[in-house]
Automatic annotation (TrEMBL):
<dbReference type="InterPro" id="IPR003439">
    <property type="entry name" value="ABC_transporter-like_ATP-bd"/>
</dbReference>
<feature type="transmembrane region" description="Helical">
    <location>
        <begin position="532"/>
        <end position="555"/>
    </location>
</feature>
<keyword id="KW-0812">Transmembrane</keyword>
<keyword id="KW-0067">ATP-binding</keyword>
<dbReference type="InterPro" id="IPR027417">
    <property type="entry name" value="P-loop_NTPase"/>
</dbReference>
<dbReference type="Pfam" id="PF01061">
    <property type="entry name" value="ABC2_membrane"/>
</dbReference>
<keyword id="KW-0813">Transport</keyword>
<comment type="similarity">
    <text>Belongs to the ABC transporter superfamily. ABCG family. Eye pigment precursor importer (TC 3.A.1.204) subfamily.</text>
</comment>
<keyword id="KW-0547">Nucleotide-binding</keyword>
<feature type="transmembrane region" description="Helical">
    <location>
        <begin position="507"/>
        <end position="526"/>
    </location>
</feature>
<dbReference type="InterPro" id="IPR013525">
    <property type="entry name" value="ABC2_TM"/>
</dbReference>
<dbReference type="InterPro" id="IPR052215">
    <property type="entry name" value="Plant_ABCG"/>
</dbReference>
<feature type="transmembrane region" description="Helical">
    <location>
        <begin position="620"/>
        <end position="645"/>
    </location>
</feature>
<dbReference type="Pfam" id="PF00005">
    <property type="entry name" value="ABC_tran"/>
</dbReference>
<dbReference type="GO" id="GO:0016887">
    <property type="term" value="F:ATP hydrolysis activity"/>
</dbReference>
<dbReference type="GO" id="GO:0140359">
    <property type="term" value="F:ABC-type transporter activity"/>
</dbReference>
<dbReference type="GO" id="GO:0005524">
    <property type="term" value="F:ATP binding"/>
</dbReference>
Length: 650
């Protein structure tokens, strides 16, 4: 059983947190290994960015013009400290641009910017990889498979963390119970093609997906944004239940909470301009600000009032600065610093977290996933197959398009006779199949991009290895691509009247399968690289268009300038078209046309025709090998790109 499983406390076993006691008496650090929550603390977290840039002329020393923009540093977070005890819910609040998301992401190891300061888990310096085992992060937007039901979504998620069926079943049941999703367990998540869960239910399911890993620490980025007040209340209540019953430590940023929601947190961290304005229980907020000489007007919500009070963009800047300057000398700050000191947390070298050395501290050797890579692949394959079978966007829409295109090709080039004058028509039909059926692989992009977001969420939370994902994707993709090639290839092959030998038909379908597989693998690289759909479409269209130019149909390839002839060797379309042509024309003699139209008054050997294209010596099986290699290389590139860049850091 994994360490994660060991730490799991069933929902039914209630965990009570003496929050008031902790606040006033400053209890000793919780070192009880049975406790499922984490003691999470941070001290003097500072994040800075370089702003502005000098002109290229001044960089190169050509100009000392006054137009040169000063390079400077901006502090996004300035010495922010705090503690959350097991079983507590912390809200990070503040006006827009105050640094809430940056703080959450810094604490959760999700920022690319260097983070300075001390971050500790159970009193020990944080180790990036071990941290993933204990902490999970729920993003602001829900990235879920729309075709899976609530129960399926949670079950598949649990399979990445539990090795026994019993563990999986109990975690799924617990998650549905605590998140109020029991009645929706058989409802699909929903999206473009299915009606499904409401926004609030989806958000709760996103929490559930992380909850089944039994995290000790849960981060949530603006979990209530976009929800109506009832859904926001339900969600926060669920989070509070999770904290209370399991001892899970919860940290979330929150935007404009209602008064009821505001009062549901145990600790409140108020930020303004990247600095702390207040840290402590929400019910003591008024007292703190009262001591600074501010009192709340009648009939005003506390949450709204404090946010307005510390808003330097639309409020009194001097007053905000007074509040921020007063914080380090306040009673609450004193309590916090004493607690941090008690835990031995200072910003000395041992606790220093720097972007350059995130894995250098203790625990690096403990790197492991909760389940083995073969098992992760197995789960991903089963989930992938189910999604492909259910979600029309992944395969069935494309299946329809390919079948219709194949029928169209058949209608246009219908039952061509095997005559010499039809050789050009056969060649053009093959060109169209090799060029346009491959081009249509662009349509896989929306599905790949949607899945990429799910991959990033799961990978960033340490759910599985990138290699497991890539292998599983290939295992799921290949049979469906073969199905497309078989259906579309068979229809157009017999309608057009290509070579009637069964072996040649099989090779045609095989070549079409390989070309679609390579094209999809290339689209996977594009999907991994591009941030937006529209950029991916443009990039895909350009690449396929470029490959078509050197396919060998429009111009004999040896007529292209020597300095660009090499391009064909990286062009998928060249290998597929050459293979199709060789398959169709080799070892055949095309009879004279009945109407004796020049230039085909005599029988024409297939080889003679192939020679005009430069394909007479093509080794078609060799080209199949090249295409298999291309598919593998593209998938390796996509995997390496995803491993390197899609870490979930912003
Ligand atoms: N990578 C970055 N480079 C430059 N500035 C940044 C970067 N990340 C954040 N900032 C700036 O830091 C400040 C805090 O941003 P952050 O997103 O953390 O605020 P926020 O409180 O979460 O805002 P909101 O509530 O509007 O989402 C903003 O002024 C933002 O422009």
């Amino acid at each position: 059983m994994s360490a994660v499983e060991n730490n799991y406390t069933p929902y039914s076993e209630s965990y009570t947190v003496p929050i008031e006691e902790q606040q006033n008496d400053i209890p000793a650090p919780n070192t009880d290994s049975e406790s499922s929550g984490a003691l999470f603390a941070w001290h003097n977290i500072t994040v800075k960015v370089t702003v502005g840039s000098s002109s290229w002329k001044s960089k190169l020393g050509f100009s000392k013009s006054s137009k040169t923009v000063q390079v400077g540093e901006k502090l996004i977070l300035n010495s922010v400290s705090g503690i959350v005890e097991p079983g507590q819910v912390l809200f990070i609040m503040g006006p827009s641009g105050s640094g809430k998301s940056t703080l959450l992401d810094s604490l959760a190891d999700r920022v690319k910017l260097p983070v300075y300061g001390a971050v500790t888990l159970d009193g020990h310096p944080k180790d990036a990889f071990a941290f993933k085992q204990n902490a999970k992060y729920v993003e602001q937007f829900d990235h879920l498979f729309q075709s899976l039901t609530v129960k399926e979504t949670l079950s598949y998620a649990a399979q990445f963390y539990c090795n026994s069926e019993e563990c999986r079943a109990s975690r799924v049941e617990d998650a549905m119970e605590i998140l109020g999703l029991k009645n929706q367990q058989d409802v699909k998540v929903g999206g473009v093609f299915f009606r499904g869960l409401s926004g609030g239910q989806k958000r709760r399911l996103s929490v559930g997906v992380e909850l089944v890993s039994a995290p000790r620490l849960l981060f949530l980025d603006e979990p209530t944004s976009g929800l109506d007040s009832a859904s926001a209340f339900n969600l926060i209540q669920s989070l509070r239940n999770i904290a209370r019953t399991r001892g899970t430590t919860i940290v979330c940023t929150i935007h404009q909470p209602s008064e009821t929601v505001f009062e549901m947190c145990d600790q409140l961290l108020l930020l303004s301009g990247g600095r702390v304005a207040y840290f402590g229980p929400p019910k003591e907020t008024l007292n703190h600000f009262g001591q600074l000489g501010y009192s709340i007007p009648e009939h005003t919500s506390v949450a709204e009032w404090v946010i307005d009070l510390i808003n330097a963009d639309f409020g009194d800047v001097d007053s905000v600065n007074r509040i921020l300057d007063a914080w380090p000398n306040s009673e609450k700050a004193d309590l916090l610093y004493r607690r941090l000191k008690q835990l031995g947390i200072t910003d000395n070298d041992e606790f220093m977290v720097k972007k350059q050395t995130p894995l250098s501290s203790i625990g690096r050797k403990d790197v492991h996933f909760s389940t083995s890579m073969p098992w992760q692949t197995n789960v991903l394959v089963r989930r992938g197959f189910l999604n492909v079978l259910r979600n029309p966007a992944v395969i069935w829409l494309r299946f329809g398009m390919y079948v219709m295109l194949a029928i169209l090709i058949g209608i246009v080039w219908l039952r061509l006779a095997q005559t010499a004058s039809n050789m050009q028509n056969f060649a053009s039909a093959l060109f169209y199949v090799a060029a346009f059926m491959v081009f249509m692989s662009i349509s896989v992009l929306p599905a790949y991009l949607e899945e990429k977001e799910i991959f990033i969420r799961e990978r960033a939370n340490g759910t599985y290895h990138v290699l497991s994902y890539q292998v599983a994707h290939f295992i799921v993709d290949a049979p469906f691509v073969f199905l497309l090639a078989l259906a579309a290839g068979t229809i157009c092959y017999w309608l057009v009247g290509f070579n009637s030998a069964f072996g040649r038909y099989c090779f045609f379908v095989w070549t079409l399968f390989l070309s679609l597989l390579v094209a999809e693998s290339m689209m996977m690289v594009i999907a991994a690289i591009v941030p937006y759909f529209i950029v991916g479409i443009a990039m895909g269209a350009f690449v396929f268009g470029a490959f078509m130019c050197v396919q060998g149909f429009f111009i004999p390839l040896d007529n292209i300038g020597w300095w660009f002839r090499w391009f064909r060797y990286i062009a998928l379309n060249y290998y597929s078209f050459a293979s199709f042509m060789k398959n169709e024309f080799s070892n055949l003699v095309f009879s004279p046309s009945p109407d004796y139209i020049p230039p085909y008054p005599n029988p024409v050997a297939g080889e003679t025709y192939l020679a005009q294209f430069g394909f007479a010596t093509v080794n078609a099986w060799g080209y199949s090998g090249v295409m298999i290699g291309m598919a593998i290389i593209y998938r390796i590139i996509a995997g390496v790109w995803m491993w390197w860049f899609h870490t979930g850091k912003h």
